[in-house]
Specification:
The complex is a heterodimer of chains A (408) and B (249). Chain A is built from 16 helices and four strands. With 408 residues, chain A is mainly α. In chain A, helix 8 packs parallel to helix 12, helix 12 runs antiparallel to helix 14 and helix 12 runs parallel beside helix 15. The chains are: A mainly alpha (408), B alpha/beta (249).
Amino acid sequence: MRPEMILHITRKEILSTLRDRRAIISNLLIPFLILPLVMLGLPVFLGGLFERESQTISEIAVVSLVNLPADLRQQLEAQNLAFSEVTDPFSVVESGDYQAAIAIEAGFAEALESGGKATLTLYSKRGNLRSELIASKVENAVRDYQQTIVAERLKAAGLDVAVLTPIELSAVDASSAAERASGSFGWLIPFFIVIWTLAGGQMTAIDATAGEKERGTLEVLLVSPVRRIEAVMGKFLATMLFGLTAALMAILGYVLGGTVMRRFFGAQLGDEGSEIVTLLGGSLSIDLISILLLIISSLLLAALIAALLIGITMFARSFREAQTYVAPLSFILIIPIVGLQFADFFSFSSLIYLIPILNTMLLMDEIVKGSIPLVPLLLTWGSSLGFAAIFLDFAYRSFKREDVLFRT
Amino acid sequence: MIEVSNLSKAFGKVKAADKLNFSVQAGEIFGLLGPNGAGKTTTLRILATLLKADAGSATVNGFDINKESEQVRTSIGVVNGGMGLYDRLSGSEVLYYFGKLYGMKRQAIEKRILELDELLKLGDTLTRRCGSFSSGMKQKIVIARALLHDPSIIFFDEATSGLDVMARRAVLDFVKNYPSEDRAVIYSTHVMGEVEELCDRAAIIYQGKIIAQDSTRALLGKAQASNLEQAFFTIVESSGLVPAVEASA
């Protein structure tokens, strides 16, 4: 193997990809911009939505408004609710004419005054965010009103409200600063690294293999004195580089997105928005060692995925055919990613760190949360290297197969 | 410069090259004449070390195709009708890319590009990206790429397919003037007239077999034909091989 030949082929593949506007947009711009957009757009949009809905007056349907006690009515109005009398609360909510409705039974106020129990029925649509939000206004008002009644009844009985809470449960968040900062959706980092490594390397891999076949340049390349292992390695390196770049751009966008959000848009976000940013891991700050470990893990993952991509796309006769081969790969990779968000519920044997790709995602999840587990780290890196070598060998063997090279 | 002995290659049951024997001398344009699917491209791919022969042997510029494949590939240039180029690279970038693959230094590539510009009138094909080329412009860069490392032997495989009349004429004139005392050309085509115009000797290849090989004049004489197309049909008929159309019927 002659390194200068490999690097020469790599340089050409890089130049060719860089001149492809589609590749630049999908490899560099989209991964860099999409996360800040999600982190800017989602909190601002949802935060604004929640804020607006809680501050605007929402009209709810009421059956037997006359039965509503004045105090409770005040509590409901304090939650920015207004009332419209209807006869069929279920159908008006079901049809969407109202987001929520309440029905007050006859004798409601009297039952409460006599120390008894009264029923208020709340109608809303489960799963409909707006309906749920308005229903929560009713629940808040009823809860506050209920607490007042309970306090009055206890007082009348000569008891203090504190009798209801003989035990004070004091909850302390024992997660590390890194765990808190990574939020409930910190697993999104490994998710985006895997997805963008695949997406970023895909264009280069297809262009360098099936694309070369389709254009008729592969035959010309192989008729030069370049050795096939050099051609494979050159294309592999370029694919790995673009996969890694796309993943790093996504992470950069993710980290910068959170920082920019908090620093420049803190006021616009409001409490709800800030909470969403934290949930998405927008407060994330990773130390240098963790960044280094993440980069090495990403590099090995990119090597594995690039070798796999070159091996698979080599079989295709055309760009389009190669895309159909790669599409299921994205799907296969998404399955463990979906499971990753529930990783906290499972305790894994160390052997799971031998499973390629999944191991890197689990390891990255740990690193982002601030721990550096040595055995999983070594197993993951070893496994990634081993599988990258296996896939690379497969790609090289494909490059030597006449039926693959000249498949028409 | 090329010695081919009992060269055979099959794809499943189809014999693409069946015990081929021929030789090409320095200064010669040797024609491989046959219809599409006759086995011409397979033969050239074996000689270019892209495919492995099932049996037989061959040397190209004195190098064994099985044992010295890198030296063989350094000795040859290939011009095919596919005209494959990298759309996003300019003509000169394509030439630099391949020059480096042939182990040439940057200065040597620059000097050679100037020579080829003069020879082939490359003009703005050097600066424009290949994706915007006409077929004639593409073929100029394809030929320049094949000549870049100054190979001793060039294979032309259906090199004029898809070209307009002017570009085709330019290619034919170039091939005619290329051979010298230390260079040779194998010109593979299904266009009989091109072989008649260019080649000193030719082999008629049909269903993977060479059914006749001689100087073009001798082939015409043997078949008592006035042109090579007529001679081709006479020779195929007398070979006893069933034409592919009849066989399938």
